[in-house]
Design a protein that fits this description.
9-stranded mixed sheet, Immunoglobulin-like, single chain, alpha/beta, 437 residues, Rossmann fold, 28% strand, disordered N terminus, 19 strands, 10 helices
């Protein structure tokens, strides 16, 4: 029997999505001239730990007034309704006093909100998130054990047959283009996701952020890296784009790109070649190229900074490690390093790297932060370390503060939960864009 790939799982998932049954308010049932529901769309949002079904958008044939809506009028099976309001579009951000869409918001903390599904690989091999020395060697193709269901909803209107969702709106994710790069130098093919600024103007110059996923998101399905967390999504959010318009590049690797022996796959050069191609196609400022990644993606960032020390203006390194004997050239670069004290591999690994950089004469600012802080508390802590004005900042999350309540700290929990928080810290993202080569 053919082993199912993650692509197979995703194709299957259309029939496995969450089924929601929604009752509608009295105005839609009783008055003959009342607005009638015509179409329903499932709305998803990406959080630090992955994509979740967070709303249902119901389209009516006439505008609906907010005064006629109440959250108690809507019941969603198995979910907690947190709000109901009109909108001018499927996007909940377009909330209005009246609109032809009714947005039913659902608690992202519901047990069945997360759309990720994990399966036991049929070939008996461990999945990419396993412990020990890591998922394998650079260049290996691991067993894919995670897939993402497509959310579904069924809306009951005036006792008629359920109005089933005909589409899904993935907030921010859908703003990325899915493409392939055929590298003429290496002969390799690399799938990638590209966000182009909404109001792109070729007469202007834009920065580019490269995000590289961890081994757990290794897949042959291009959007997997966008579904698994905020590493790419955060930079493309409407709020960030309003302040810092930029291109966001998120490659989707089908193989392990970096391993615990400080080796990388040939995708290192292919990724660099992809950035060069994009910089030739679009108005991208080569003095404002930035790299970031988590776990294996962090290690690939480090390896790129070593091999191409003049390529990136700054790097945001999340939960990685590397042979400290190889990192000397990083001492002259601009880095923000973030790790958790609950990470029994990346924390000592980054300690060793940072010690080597200081040995090479680098000026490093250090701090210990609490992973449970509010945005304002992170802002205050950032300002304190930023005031030292050093090119390298090394922050460790205090032990026990990245693990969600009720979740075990065993295994790789301290590792994975580092990036659940890392990309939510806005001042670090702002710091990256202040750097120039």
């Amino acid at each position: 029997m053919k082993m199912q790939t993650r692509r197979d799982f995703l194709l299957m998932s259309a029939s496995l999505g969450t089924l929601l049954v929604v009752s509608v308010p009295a105005f839609a049932r009783n008055a003959d001239d009342a607005p009638r529901a015509r179409k329903a769309t499932a709305v998803t949002q990406v959080f630090g730990d992955g994509i979740r079904l967070t709303a249902v958008a119901v389209k009516y044939d006439a505008p609906v007034n907010a005064a006629n809506l109440s959250a108690t009028s809507f019941k969603v099976e198995g979910r907690n309704v947190t709000g109901v309001f009109p909108s001018t579009s499927i996007d909940p951000a377009n909330r209005a006093a009246t609109g032809r869409f009714v947005i039913i918001t659902l608690s992202p903390d519901d047990a069945n909100a997360n759309l990720a599904e994990h399966s036991q690989p049929s070939n008996g091999k461990p999945g990419p998130a396993g412990g020990g020395r890591g998922p394998g060697n650079a260049g290996d193709i691991p067993a894919y054990d995670t897939f993402y269901k497509q959310a579904k909803a069924s809306v009951v209107v005036r006792g008629a047959s359920p109005l089933t969702t005909t589409e899904v709106r993935n907030l921010i994710v859908d703003d990325f283009h899915q493409l392939e790069f055929h590298d003429p130098k290496t002969g390799k093919v690399l799938r990638y996701n590209l966000f182009v600024p909404k109001h792109y103007d070729a007469s202007k110059s834009y920065p580019l952020v490269l995000f590289m996923h961890d081994a757990g998101a290794t897949s042959d399905v291009t959007r997997t890296t966008l579904f698994q967390g905020l590493g790419a999504i955060a930079w493309a959010s409407p709020a960030d784009q309003a302040e810092r318009p930029c291109f966001v590049l998120a490659p989707q690797y089908a193989e392990i790109i970096a391993d615990d022996d400080s080796h990388t796959s040939s995708m290192l050069d292919t990724t660099i070649d992809l950035i060069k191609m994009l910089a030739g196609k679009y108005s991208i400022d080569r003095k404002r190229l930035y790299t970031t990644g988590q776990s294996g993606g962090c290690m690939m960032s480090i390896a790129m900074d070593i091999k191409y020390p003049e390529f990136f203006a700054a790097s945001f390194l999340v939960a990685g490690q590397w042979d400290p004997a190889l990192v000397k050239s990083l001492a002259r670069q601009k880095l923000w390093i973030l790790v958790s004290q609950d990470d029994d591999k990346a924390w000592p690994g980054e300690d060793a790297i940072t010690a080597e950089l200081e040995k090479q004469g680098a000026k490093v600012s250090r701090a210990v932060w609490n992973g449970t802080w509010t945005p304002k508390e992170f802002e205050a802590a950032f300002e304190k370390i930023d005031a030292e004005n050093n090119p390298i900042n090394y922050v460790a999350f205090q032990k026990g503060t990245v693990i969600p309540e009720g979740q075990s700290a065993a295994g790789a929990s301290g590792h994975r939960n580092t990036w659940r928080i890392a990309y939510t810290i806005e001042p670090i993202r702002a710091w990256i864009f202040r750097q120039r080569r």
